[in-house]
Amino acid sequence: MDLDKAIVSADVVLVEFYASWCPHCQRMMPVVAQVKELLEGRVPVYQYDLDSNSDAATGAEVESIPTFIIYKGGKDVWRHSGEIDGEVLLSKVESFC
Asked: Catalytic residue at 97?
């Protein structure tokens, strides 16, 4: 889904920018999968590969990967670059619900 449409698809949305060649992104894949499963039906989670979505990454001002962005009401309300504990990410997303 196009990033502009994704960020307004629900009140709260989690977006991750990653790259297949990034070791930190690879380590985060199972963590993000678990968070996505735990948020299912409540908060959509969208993942964008930097290499095939460079315009979206530039528009979102992504400077390093992985980058996680929480949008609320279509606005960027929180972001984190680098690896993050799944429970921390989950609780951060839930704090905006």
From this structure: no
Residue 1 and residue 46 in contact, taking contact as beta carbons nearer than 8 Å: yes
Q: Of 19, 22, 29, 84, which residue is the catalytic one?
A: 22
- Give the global pTM: 0.96
What pLDDT digit, counting tens, does each position of 56-75 carry?
A: 999 999 999 999 999 999 99
| 58: three-class secondary structure by DSSP | helix
Which residue in 6, 12, 25, 69 is the catalytic one? 25
Is 25 known to be catalytic?
Answer: yes
Q: Which residue type, as a one-letter code, is found at position 34?
A: Q
Q: Where do the domains of the chain lie, and which CATH numbers do they carry?
A: 3-85 (3.40.30.10)
State the alpha helices, DSSP H only, in 1-97.
3-6, 23-39, 54-59, 86-94
- Confidence band for 24, pLDDT divided at 50, 70 and 90: very high
